[in-house]
Design goal:
The structure holds two protein chains of two kinds. By secondary structure, chain A is an alpha/beta fold. Chain A has two domains: 135 residues, P-loop containing nucleotide triphosphate hydrolases (Rossmann fold), CATH 3.40.50.300; 136 residues, Beta-Lactamase. In chain A, the strands form two sheets. Chain A has a five-stranded antiparallel β-sheet, sandwiched between helices. A three-stranded parallel β-sheet of chain A has the order 1-2-3, sandwiched between helices. In chain A, a hairpin with a 6-residue loop joins strand 6 and strand 7. In chain A, helix 2 packs across helix 3 and helix 5 packs antiparallel against helix 7. The longest helix of chain A has 22 residues. The radius of gyration of chain B is 21 Å and the shape is globular. In chain B, helix 7 packs antiparallel against helix 9. By secondary structure, chain B is an alpha/beta fold. Chain B has nine helices and eleven strands. A six-stranded mixed β-sheet of chain B has the order 2-3-1-4-5-6, sandwiched between helices. A five-stranded antiparallel β-sheet of chain B has the order 8-7-11-10-9, with helices on both faces. The chains are: A alpha/beta, B alpha/beta. The interface between A and B is large, with 40 and 45 residues. Bound molecules: guanosine-5'-triphosphate, guanosine-5'-diphosphate and magnesium ion (MG). Guanosine-5'-triphosphate binds next to helix 1 of chain B. Chain A: Component of the GSE complex. Chain A: One of its GO terms (biological process) is negative regulation of autophagy. Chain A: GO terms for molecular function: GTP binding; GTPase activity.
Chain lengths: 282, 326
């Protein structure tokens, strides 16, 4: 089989952008194609080319995102060669038809590391016209609060829709993404619908409605983590530096509040609807 | 019971056929392995010992006994008294996929007889392991069939032996081990009494006391509406969540998993507040409380104040004055 229908195996299951990232971008969509890099891909590329040409004809604005998948099984050299070969073949075909500027991008992905999340994050980020604004907001948050790295995560998919512009590394992404799991799992266990406790409903009003979480590590000098739900879909997750959180907590809370308010102006409307089909014909 | 500062050593035998999954379990529960790491384990040669300190005065002395025929033969003959003497608990692991179930049961019987002879008061737990390999709809039935058959081969332990279905790929592992640990804790009742008082003072919905390295629950108290929490498997889920988090922190920060401990974790939402903090040398306390900053702050202060009481429990279990509100 040349193409795969992406089915998000096992633990990546909840990662279906068709319903998760609804509110993130405007009416633009992207088409994600998955090519099995471990298999014969010539025919797959022919089909991909046909599709891109069709799209160029009727929907020239749709981004075509090609995931060269399962690269984990290939040697470093072979991986690079395969990747370049695929890009070359697609681009030759497009320029033959005069579409050399078609919005087609390529990513190397595998489910055995976080590359697939990274690729998805980039795909999504392209569809967010406000990205530069978000980055600027995150940068300023980081510098005021001495935050090492801040991500704006889509909670359910664990794709990040923006991060500050300091260099990203796999480790910090994975810590933050695992941390979301902890918060989601605990929230599921204790956030069940309990009937109103009679006569004691007044305590409900004090807790803030957006979930907030903090982990401090035992050893001084180690990073600690901060999470704040921004709205139903988004969470801000920060990897903090060395200073004691107790002293900084108020400062962080304040600045995150400012960030949250700014974000509301960036995304004035709460609900948006865009579908990103993840397909590939078999 | 146990007065004085003497440590209580409890010998635990881990036995079963070679490849049944004994060392896999041990490495995950006690040594911070993740499930996929266990493929690297080789067969255990003879016996591997490990000591785990729980709640101060409980020292778990775990004997992981290699299951190849030659070794077992040796345990039953030359080393009989050495291996089967003064055993508190025998954990026997059956591989659900084994093609020689009859032979496994015969070997189990031999071991049971040796145990009855040398440590008649021991407790036996049987784990029917690798349940993940069985189709979900067949699991309950198969487990019950095996259980019944093994029980009849349990000699003098027939009425007291307890069975658990387990797999290293889900939280069933934690469920079984939590029960085993609970059985071994000498002063579980007094700990629970103290926890119950604490829960009332701080108005907690639930308190969970767990051991820091293994993330296994020692005990818990649940109050009021929380007793209706639909997630009845939440204790083993929490063990598993915390263990996974510990491993994630270790992996990405380069701190050894053994010391990737957090000082505190807090989660605050509109529906509940939750925090975990250290209670004694070897235990952490997880508390779920109503969503109120006031309750939250008071709870943290009160827990800080009761620490010495629990530390004392670590050492001796004599009567103590109750907990007063801060
Ligand atoms: N599917 C599945 N495989 C498991 C499970 N637990 C262990 N295994 C596999 O079983 C194999 C043998 O595990 P070990 O833990 O080394 O077996 P052992 O009982 O210690 O064997 P001896 O040391 O020779 O007595 C390992 O390769 C594990 O991957 C489980 O819950 N499910
Ligand atoms: N080596 C490798 N195998 C993968 C990767 N992603 C999926 N697979 C394997 O490819 C097979 C088919 O995957 P599946 O998602 O069911 O394909 P579909 O037919 O396109 O839905 C499964 O056995 C997966 O384990 C990857 O990144 N690397
Ligand atoms: Mg072994």
């Amino acid at each position: 089989m040349d193409f795969q229908v992406w089915d998000f195996p096992g633990h990546l299951d909840y990662f279906d952008p068709a319903f998760d990232v609804d509110n993130i971008f405007e009416e633009i969509g992207a088409l994600i194609w998955v090519i099995d890099a471990q298999d014969e891909y010539l025919e797959a590329i022919m089909r991909l080319n046909t599709t891109i040409l069709n799209l160029q004809h009727s929907y020239p604005n749709i981004n075509v995102e090609v995931f060269v998948h399962k690269v984990d099984g290939l040697s470093e050299d072979y991986k690079g060669d395969t990747f370049r070969d695929i890009i070359q073949r697609v681009q030759d075909e497009l320029s033959d038809h005069g579409y050399e500027n078609a919005p087609v991008s390529f990513y190397q992905t595998s489910i055995y590391d976080h590359s697939i999340f990274e690729a998805f994050s980039k795909v999504i980020q392209k569809l967010i016209p406000q990205l530069p604004t978000l980055e600027a907001l995150l940068n300023s948050l980081c510098s005021t609060c001495h935050i090492e790295k801040a991500y704006l995560f889509d909670i359910m998919s664990k794709i990040y829709i923006a991060t500050d512009t300091s260099p990203t590394d796999i480790g910090s992404y994975e810590i933050c993404s695992d941390y979301i799991d902890v918060v989601i799992d605990v929230s599921e266990i204790y956030g069940w619908d309990r009937p109103a406790e009679n006569g004691r409903t007044e305590i409900q009003e004090t807790g803030n409605n957006d979930a907030e979480s903090l982990i401090t590590m035992e050893r001084k000098g180690n990073n600690y983590l901060y999470l704040r739900e921004i709205n139903k879909y988004l969470a801000l997750i920060c990897l903090m530096g060395d200073d004691s959180p107790a002293e900084k907590k108020a400062v962080i809370d304040y600045n995150v509040g400012v960030f949250q308010a700014a974000l509301k102006q960036v995304f004035p409307r709460a609900e948006r609807e865009v579908i990103v089909p993840v397909t590939s014909p078999s | 019971m146990n007065t004085g500062k003497r440590q209580k050593q409890r010998k635990v035998l881990l036995m079963g056929k070679s490849g049944a999954g004994k060392s896999s379990m041990r490495s995950i529960v006690f040594s911070n392995y993740v499930a996929k790491d266990v493929r690297r384990l080789g067969a255990t040669i003879d016996v591997e010992h490990s000591n785990i300190k729980f709640m101060g005065n409980l020292m778990l002395n775990l004997w992981d006994c290699g299951g190849q025929d030659g070794f077992v033969e040796n345990y039953l003959t030359h080393q009989r008294a050495h291996v089967f003497g003064s055993v508190a608990v025998l954990i026997f692991v059956f591989d659900i996929e084994s093609r020689e179930f009859q032979a496994d049961v015969i070997s189990y019987s031999n071991i049971i007889r040796a145990l009855e002879e040398c440590s008649p008061t021991a407790k036996v737990f049987v784990l029917i392991h690798k349940m993940d390999l069985v189709q979900a709809r067949l699991r309950v039935q198969l487990f019950e069939e095996r259980t019944e058959y093994i029980r009849t081969a349990s000699e003098g332990f027939r009425d007291s032996v307890e069975f658990f279905p387990t797999s290293i790929w889900d939280q069933s592992l934690y469920k079984a081990w939590t029960q085993i640990i609970y059985f071994l804790i000498p002063n579980a009742r007094s700990i629970e009494g103290l926890l119950q008082q604490l829960a009332e003072v701080i108005d907690a919905r639930e308190l969970i006391l767990y051991e820091r390295t293994t993330c296994l629950m020692v005990t818990h108290v649940t109050r009021g509406l929380e007793t209706n929490n639909p997630f009845t498997d939440r204790f083993e889920r929490i063990s598993s969540i915390l263990k996974t988090h510990k491993q994630s922190m270790a992996k990405h920060t380069g701190i050894p998993a053994g010391s990737a401990n957090f000082a505190e974790m807090q989660i605050k939402t509109g529906r509940f507040m939750f925090f975990i903090t250290r209670l004694t040398e070897n235990t952490n306390l997880a508390a779920s409380i109503p969503p109120s900053e006031q309750v939250f702050n008071a709870a943290r202060v009160n827990i800080l104040l009761v620490r010495p009481k629990f530390a004392e429990l670590d050492i001796a279990s004599k009567p103590r004055p109750g907990i007063q509100q801060a």
